[in-house]
């Protein structure tokens, strides 16, 4: 018998809302548990990929509530940014209108899923009540030297018409539209995330996946080495030397050329007149290439001579200065020393350009002959002045000491990560609260004047300059210091600023005197369980960690990390491709919810595969889940007269109760670990037995309803009411199991002869070692393989196997 899921969903949605069962109180005496899933972009409707991710988080949060915690599991919308703005432009609608309309529809879709969200705690980042505090945070960072403006070469997406942070460039392409990224010089605003580089490398206070920790570690890219100067004083510049960073200072005597990045400010100053045309053309061509193109191992290494030289202070040698596109200004000092004998890239470059190749680290038994390839293994210092004859491992330290003693450089640590570029030349974002006055210069907007409102009547089509620059009512302002006319900053903030602290706002989303109520935040603290996609490893997750550490140091929070535990969901595949709006292969859940109900859709998504791996969407699978939920419904509606337990055989009751306790144990362990698919499989197996064995039915069906409730909230509530449970099933404690009752009465022992499998035997679970050995030797199959042999030894591994050693 199938149930009417539409009536059931409407009935319980109203009851839950009227009863306020998902309202979260800050003063609840139960221990707190803050469980959060990454909020969505409202650039369009939700698809089943969103539901897959959100349902897993909801299932776990419901489970933790039934385990006795006061659970905060809120929802909001990451409403600013390119995603929403590009969608609005594509559809010819103002971004605010488009975004708020999508949010309303997404709310409807989310409600139909039956989640345990307290909608009174909703956060929407594009409303002034929220982005006012983005601006307030900016001012706090600015006052403390953690926000600054600088002229810098930036990543430019010609399609999105805006600057991208390094983290938003994936293999040389824009992470939003897959357009090749170019470079240009612009004045930009930055947050000093590099001040926290070392602390961000420490993941010891968090329970995060190893791959996320590794991705962040690699992105930060900490390298220990030496910064060393090369003399360019002969050119009469303000700069008397150029400095490079190297992790191989033991090879410094082997430098035969210096290479500058095309963007390096000294290129123009050092280039001689006879080489200027060639260098200028080369630099312009290099700036048209993406970083991935410039660094490609398949790309031929090119470079041009500037006409200038630098002096290696360690041996007095004058070496040529070249410009090459394989050197990036964004890494190190934007200059590298060419040591072709001991660097593969330099070896290829020097060979092609006829530059000297001098060996300074000798391979074992080296006879002084030319190298066929770069030698990068350990060896002995040669051609290295007073350091000849020592192992290069010792040379690393002694040469560094020598350089520091002479004031030619110093040991240092270098990072691949650069400061967080937050400027965006787009409309749909938080205005940066700064004005520019001819008298006072760069001036922050007073906190009392916040928020600086985003004008609703601005032209929002991208032009390459900020659309706000064209809005006179916005641009023209008054200097807060001297009262003179001033111009507003017209860039907006990166949307990742919004998501770097939104989890703090959920503690008190209606608080007006600050970004959060300190007392409420003290109650909820850091997020205990965070879930979301692995693609945010070096953007959102890194930025949020920086924000919390900066706020801690400024005295606004008392914890060190935003998210204590992190679990990443997998991806939903459809037609052998990851489901995404950009690929046009998304599946809307609405029709499925209408046809089979939210519970079936939730169950199918949690059953299709391990939640951390994802799975492939298939309509046949969802139909199978519909059949199972209907079978459970049939079980709950059995004729009570058939369910008289008084005449039931004790062995049958004991067997069903044992399976029930085993199922509770299995589902508990699996939901704890986000292994929803195997937990559902255990419930299916239990319901199959329950369907043919009515013994202990009432206890079993009640426990089944409790176990199903996180996955099938509507159906479980209806079954719970039908069997006489008090409202609501979602306010009941999670069922417990008795280890003694869950123990198997029999176990299967593997029997081996000389280590090879020969039999499997069923024995009592509490069998003794002697009895286990005797039963193994009595096996006909064991006898067949030991006939004519002498049994030398019988090895017993309790509860697992018996191995007979015979010769």
From TrEMBL:
User: Which Pfam families does the annotation name?
Assistant: Anticodon_1, tRNA-synt_1, tRNA-synt_1_2, tRNA-synt_1g
The family database entries (InterPro entries) matched by this protein are listed as:
aa-tRNA-synth_Ia, Leu-tRNA-ligase, Leu_tRNA-synth_edit, M/V/L/I-tRNA-synth_anticd-bd, Methionyl/Leucyl_tRNA_Synth, Rossmann-like_a/b/a_fold, tRNAsynth_Ia_anticodon-bd, Val/Leu/Ile-tRNA-synth_edit
Aminoacyl-tRNA synthetase class Ia domain span: 417-606
Family matches, as Gene3D superfamilies:
3.10.20.590, HUPs, Isoleucyl-tRNA Synthetase, Domain 1, Valyl/Leucyl/Isoleucyl-tRNA synthetase, editing domain
Q: What Gene Ontology molecular-function terms does this entry list?
A: aminoacyl-tRNA deacylase activity; ATP binding; leucine-tRNA ligase activity
Please name the top-level EC class of this enzyme: ligase
Please report the stretch or stretches of sequence annotated as the Methionyl/Leucyl tRNA synthetase domain. 39-184
Provide a GO CC annotation, any one.
cytosol
Q: Which UniProt keywords apply?
A: Aminoacyl-tRNA synthetase, ATP-binding, Cytoplasm, Ligase, Nucleotide-binding, Protein biosynthesis
Q: What is its EC number?
A: 6.1.1.4
Which CDD domains does the entry mention? Answer: Anticodon_Ia_Leu_BEm, LeuRS_core
Query: What's a BP term from Gene Ontology annotated to this protein?
Result: leucyl-tRNA aminoacylation
| Claim: Ligase is one of the keywords in the record | yes
Q: Which intervals hold domain Leucyl-tRNA synthetase editing?
A: 218-403
The UniProt record lists the Methionyl/Valyl/Leucyl/Isoleucyl-tRNA synthetase anticodon-binding domain at: 657-768
User: Which reaction(s) does its UniProt entry say it catalyses?
Assistant: tRNA(Leu) + L-leucine + ATP = L-leucyl-tRNA(Leu) + AMP + diphosphate
What family does the Swiss-Prot or TrEMBL record give for this protein?
A: Belongs to the class-I aminoacyl-tRNA synthetase family.
**HAMAP family, A to Z:** Leu_tRNA_synth_B
Task: Output this protein's name.
Answer: leucine--tRNA ligase
Give the source lineage, highest ranks first: Eukaryota, Metazoa, Porifera, Demospongiae, Heteroscleromorpha
């Amino acid at each position: 018998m199938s149930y009417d899921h539409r009536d059931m969903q409407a009935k319980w949605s109203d009851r839950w809302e009227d009863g306020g069962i998902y309202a979260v109180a800050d003063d609840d005496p139960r221990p707190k548990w803050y469980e959060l899933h990454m909020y969505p972009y409202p650039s369009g409707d939700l698809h089943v990929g969103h539901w897959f991710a959100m349902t897993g988080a909801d299932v776990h949060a419901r489970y933790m509530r039934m385990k006795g915690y006061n659970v905060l599991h809120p929802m909001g919308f990451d409403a600013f940014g390119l995603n929403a703005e590009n969608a609005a432009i594509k559809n010819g609608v103002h971004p605010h209108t488009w975004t708020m309309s999508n949010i309303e529809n997404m709310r409807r879709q989310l409600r139909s899923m039956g989640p345990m969200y307290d909608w009174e705690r909703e956060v929407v980042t594009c409303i002034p009540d929220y982005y006012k505090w983005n601006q307030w945070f900016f001012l706090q960072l600015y006052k403390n030297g953690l926000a600054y403006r600088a002229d810098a070469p930036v990543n430019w997406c010609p399609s999105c018409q805006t600057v991208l942070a390094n983290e938003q460039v994936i293999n040389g392409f824009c992470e939003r539209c897959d357009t090749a990224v170019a470079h240009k010089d612009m004045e930009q605003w930055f947050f000093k995330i590099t001040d926290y580089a070392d602390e961000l490398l420490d993941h010891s206070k968090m329970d995060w996946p190893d791959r996320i920790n590794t991705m962040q570690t690699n992105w930060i890219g900490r390298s220990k080495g030496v910064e060393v100067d090369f003399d360019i004083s002969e050119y009469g510049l303000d700069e008397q030397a150029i400095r490079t960073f190297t992790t191989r200072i033991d090879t410094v005597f082997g430098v035969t050329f210096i290479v500058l990045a095309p963007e390096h400010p000294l290129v123009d100053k050092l280039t001689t007149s006879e080489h200027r045309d060639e260098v200028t053309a080369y630099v312009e061509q290099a700036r048209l290439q993406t970083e991935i193109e410039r660094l490609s191992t398949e790309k031929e290494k090119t470079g041009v001579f500037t006409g200038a030289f630098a002096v290696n202070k360690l041996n007095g040698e004058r070496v040529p200065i070249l410009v090459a596109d394989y050197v990036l200004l964004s890494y190190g000092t934007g200059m590298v020393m060419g040591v072709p004998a001991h660097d593969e890239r330099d070896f290829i470059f020097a060979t092609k350009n006829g530059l000297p190749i001098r060996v300074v680290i000798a391979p074992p038994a080296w006879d002084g002959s030319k190298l066929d390839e770069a030698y990068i293994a350990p060896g002995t210092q040669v051609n290295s002045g007073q350091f000849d004859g020592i192992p290069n491992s010792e040379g690393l330290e002694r040469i560094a000491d020598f350089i520091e003693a002479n004031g030619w450089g110093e040991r240092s640590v270098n990072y691949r990560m650069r400061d967080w570029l937050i400027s965006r030349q787009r409309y749909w974002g938080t205005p940066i609260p700064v004005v520019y006055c001819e008298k006072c210069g760069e001036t922050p907007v007073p906190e009392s004047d916040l928020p600086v409102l985003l004008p609703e009547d601005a032209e929002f089509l991208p032009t390459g300059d900020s659309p706000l620059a064209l809005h006179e009512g916005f641009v023209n302002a008054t200097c807060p210091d001297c009262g003179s006319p001033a111009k507003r900053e017209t860039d907006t903030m990166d949307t990742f600023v919004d998501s770097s602290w939104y989890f703090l706002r959920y503690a008190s989303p209606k608080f007006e005197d600050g970004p959060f109520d300190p007392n409420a935040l003290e109650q909820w603290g850091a997020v205990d369980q965070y879930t979301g996609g692995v693609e945010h490893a070096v953007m959102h997750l890194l930025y949020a960690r920086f924000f919390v550490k900066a706020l801690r140091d400024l005295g606004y929070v008392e914890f060190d990390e935003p998210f204590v535990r992190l679990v990443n969901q997998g991806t939903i595949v459809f037609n052998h491709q990851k489901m995404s709006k950009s690929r046009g292969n998304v599946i809307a859940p609405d029709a499925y919810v209408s046809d089979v109900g939210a519970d079936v859709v939730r169950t199918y998504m949690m059953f299709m595969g391990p939640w951390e791996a994802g799975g492939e969407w298939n309509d046949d699978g969802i139909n199978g889940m519909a059949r199972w939920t209907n079978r459970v419904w049939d079980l709950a509606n059995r004729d009570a007269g058939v369910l008289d337990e008084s005449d039931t055989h004790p062995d049958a009751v004991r067997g069903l109760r044992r399976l029930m306790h085993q199922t509770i144990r299995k589902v508990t362990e699996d939901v704890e670990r986000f292994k929803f698919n195997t937990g559902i499989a255990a419930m299916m197996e239990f319901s199959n037995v329950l369907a043919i064995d009515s013994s202990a039915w009432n206890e079993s069906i009640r426990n089944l309803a409790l176990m199903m409730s996180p996955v099938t909230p509507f159906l479980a509530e209806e079954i719970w009411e039908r069997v006489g449970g008090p409202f609501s099933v979602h306010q009941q404690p999670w069922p417990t199991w008795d280890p003694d009752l869950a123990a198997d009465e029999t176990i299967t022992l593997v029997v081996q002869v000389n280590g090879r499998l020969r039999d499997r035997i069923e024995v009592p679970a509490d069998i003794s070692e002697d009895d286990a050995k005797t039963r193994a030797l009595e096996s006909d199959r064991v006898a067949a393989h030991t006939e004519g042999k002498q049994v030398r030894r019988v090895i017993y591994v309790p509860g697992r196997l018996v191995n007979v050693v015979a010769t």
